[in-house]
Write a structure and sequence with these properties.
With 124 residues, the protein is mainly beta. The protein is 0% helix and 50% strand. The strands form 2 sheets. Strands 2, 4, 5, 6, 9, 10 and 11 form a 7-stranded mixed sheet that branches. It is globular, with a radius of gyration of 13 Å. The relative contact order is 0.31. The mean pLDDT is 95.
């Protein structure tokens, strides 16, 4: 599976952005997709996850109520709608895919494939 993120950019606090992650290759075997982020000097952290069927979603406490993850199976694309952005949301955002329902969805090690990342910068 190949994953390509897009939609990052520079915005002001309070603005919105929508990230996209286009999957190609063996997408029919994907069990779930996730979004993670990594700020400078910090470890990569979980943001949101969705099962490929779209039946289940989850969010980190830091983004719950502001971010929404969704998917379009016909386009093999997962989205992350980010509203009410804060400077602390500044990070490189990565999407990831997992084939198996083993391991917690918020763990980096549970995912098999990763995109190259897209930069999101929120100015105050």
């Amino acid at each position: 599976v190949q994953l390509v993120e897009s939609g990052g950019g520079l915005v002001q606090a309070g603005d919105s952005l929508r990230l996209s992650c286009a999957a190609s290759g063996r997408t029919f075997s994907i069990y779930a997709m996730g979004w993670f982020r990594q700020a400078p000097g910090k470890e990569r952290e979980f943001v949101a996850a969705i099962t490929w069927s779209g039946s289940s979603t989850d969010y980190s406490d830091s983004v719950k109520g502001r971010f929404t993850i969704s998917g379009d199976n016909a386009k093999s694309t997962v989205y992350l709608q980010m509203n009410s952005l804060k400077p602390e949301d500044t990070a490189v955002y990565y999407c990831a895919a997992r084939y198996y329902n083993s391991g917690a969805h918020y763990l980096i090690g549970s995912y098999d494939y990763w995109g190259q990342g897209t930069q999101v910068t929120v100015s105050s």
